From TrEMBL:
<feature type="binding site">
    <location>
        <position position="164"/>
    </location>
    <ligand>
        <name>ATP</name>
    </ligand>
</feature>
<keyword id="KW-0963">Cytoplasm</keyword>
<comment type="function">
    <text>Catalyzes the formation of N(4)-acetylcytidine (ac(4)C) at the wobble position of elongator tRNA(Met), using acetate and ATP as substrates. First activates an acetate ion to form acetyladenylate (Ac-AMP) and then transfers the acetyl group to tRNA to form ac(4)C34.</text>
</comment>
<keyword id="KW-0436">Ligase</keyword>
<dbReference type="InterPro" id="IPR008513">
    <property type="entry name" value="tRNA(Met)_cyd_acetate_ligase"/>
</dbReference>
<keyword id="KW-0547">Nucleotide-binding</keyword>
<keyword id="KW-0819">tRNA processing</keyword>
<feature type="binding site">
    <location>
        <position position="189"/>
    </location>
    <ligand>
        <name>ATP</name>
    </ligand>
</feature>
<feature type="binding site">
    <location>
        <position position="101"/>
    </location>
    <ligand>
        <name>ATP</name>
    </ligand>
</feature>
<keyword id="KW-0820">tRNA-binding</keyword>
<keyword id="KW-0694">RNA-binding</keyword>
<feature type="binding site">
    <location>
        <begin position="7"/>
        <end position="20"/>
    </location>
    <ligand>
        <name>ATP</name>
    </ligand>
</feature>
<dbReference type="InterPro" id="IPR014729">
    <property type="entry name" value="Rossmann-like_a/b/a_fold"/>
</dbReference>
<feature type="region of interest" description="Disordered">
    <location>
        <begin position="385"/>
        <end position="404"/>
    </location>
</feature>
<keyword id="KW-0067">ATP-binding</keyword>
<protein>
    <recommendedName>
        <fullName>tRNA(Met) cytidine acetate ligase</fullName>
        <ecNumber>6.3.4.-</ecNumber>
    </recommendedName>
</protein>
<comment type="similarity">
    <text>Belongs to the TmcAL family.</text>
</comment>
Length: 404
């Protein structure tokens, strides 16, 4: 059985994801699609709008055969570590290939770009450092260094200013660095860009555009056309039970309290809190009524919105620098859900997996998995404290979803 892997957040699963899924299966000539999916908190440093189990159901209802969890350690990390965790897991579960969506749409420019930077790493790093010294942000410094390098070594390269191209580059990099035999493939994104707003009459929109529409209107009817019917129904059920979708805005009173209860020195214990920003965080938290107001006070040239959100996620969940540096690679394959076809694949290939497959976690002693359980409890409590009339499933008690 040929298995293709994809790296997803499904926040939420929309028509663009359905297209990507279909195209990935065709491009890889695969029998099985395995998705490694972020759990309670995501790569841009924000809570998932609905919990991992609802998003797993969306994925299985739309054609994914197996969903495994990308641990918190990687799902909230920078692109380099996010990709490393995801590709390590897809390799461990014996995927033959992985497919990612990109603005470029062709894999060769990604390979050219990776080998260019790999072969000229010293020059590249020197250019990054010189840009940082001018006060530019880290992403802008990376882009500057890349532009300088490509001018000196002409070939066909990707545009590293595009978010999906950036992730694609890091997937290629991760596969090479861990010595994975998995074959990289890419397909072009269609219709909606990563940050595009929802367009009237469109059938495909970005997840960012969908979330923005829901935040501004509170109406699911406005996004119905850009979602598979099953995703729409899952979102309607969630909204009926929990009143609103999870976001930093809805979690703000809890996040605000979490920041204020710490001293500046205590805040520096948490992952990604650096360079004296702890003082700005405390000052802004004490004088902000909303999350948006808070972020506008602390955002600067040095600190991007995403970097700040990841920092805040770690403060909120209590994830320390010490914990971050104690992990080097995924330790288990956490199974979230499967179809009958997916279950057949697992039964047939389980002995070939290079990490243990975990389906029940109540008695786990695995430290990385313990962090995921802890973070899920915090996420559940936050949703339930934000006006929900229903309890979310306890992560340590929930078995993998068997979708029929």
């Amino acid at each position: 059985m040929q298995a293709v892997g994809i790296v997803v957040e499904y926040n939420p699963f929309h028509n663009g994801h359905a297209y990507h899924l279909e195209q990935a299966k065709q491009a890889a000539k695969a029998d099985i699609v395995i998705a490694v999916m972020s759990g309670s908190f995501l790569q841009r440093g924000e809570p998932a709008m609905v919990d991992k189990w609802t998003r797993t159901q969306m994925a299985l209802a739309s054609g994914v055969d197996i969903v495994i969890e990308l641990p918190y350690v990687y799902s909230t990390a920078s692109a380099t570590d996010f990709a490393k965790g995801a590709i390590s897991l897809l390799t461990a579960i014996r995927c033959d290939s992985f497919v990612f969506g990109s603005e470029d749409g062709s894999v060769q420019p990604f390979l050219n770009t990776y080998h260019l930077i790999k072969q000229h790493r010293d020059e590249y790093d020197s250019l990054v450092r010189s840009s940082l010294q001018t006060g530019a942000s880290f992403p802008k410094s990376l882009h500057y260094a890349y532009e300088q390098l490509t001018q000196n070594h002409p070939a066909t390269y990707i545009d590293l200013a595009q978010p999906n191209n950036i992730l694609g580059f890091h997937y290629i990099e991760a596969a090479d660095r861990i010595g994975s035999p998995i074959q990289p493939l890419t397909i072009p994104r269609v219709a909606a860009g990563y940050h595009d707003d929802l367009k009237e009459g469109a059938s495909i929109a970005s997840a960012t555009g969908i979330r923005k529409e829901l935040a501004e209107t509170g109406s699911l009817e406005g996004v119905k056309n850009v979602l598979p019917e099953s995703s729409y129904e899952y979102l309607c059920n969630w909204h009926e039970q929990h009143t609103r979708f999870a976001s930093w805005e809805s979690f703000w009173p809890l996040l605000q309290f979490t920041i204020i209860r710490h001293s500046p020195n205590e805040l520096t214990r948490y992952a990604e809190v650096t360079e004296g920003i702890e003082h700005a965080l405390l000052k802004a938290a004490k004088t902000s009524d909303t999350f948006k107001t808070f972020m506008e006070k602390i955002k600067s040239k040095r600190y991007t919105w995403t970097r700040l959100q990841r920092m805040l996620t770690h403060i909120y969940t209590g994830f320390t620098k010490e914990q971050l540096h104690s992990f080097d690679t995924p330790t288990t394959i956490r199974l979230l859900g499967m179809t009958a076809q997916g279950q057949h694949y697992l039964g047939r290939h389980k002995k070939e997996f290079t990490l243990p497959l975990v389906s029940r976690v109540a008695a786990t002693e695995d430290k990385m998995l313990a962090i995921d359980l802890h973070v899920a409890e915090i996420y559940n409590f936050s949703v339930e404290s934000s006006g929900s009339s229903h309890k979310l499933p306890k992560d340590y008690q929930t078995p993998p979803i068997r979708f029929k």
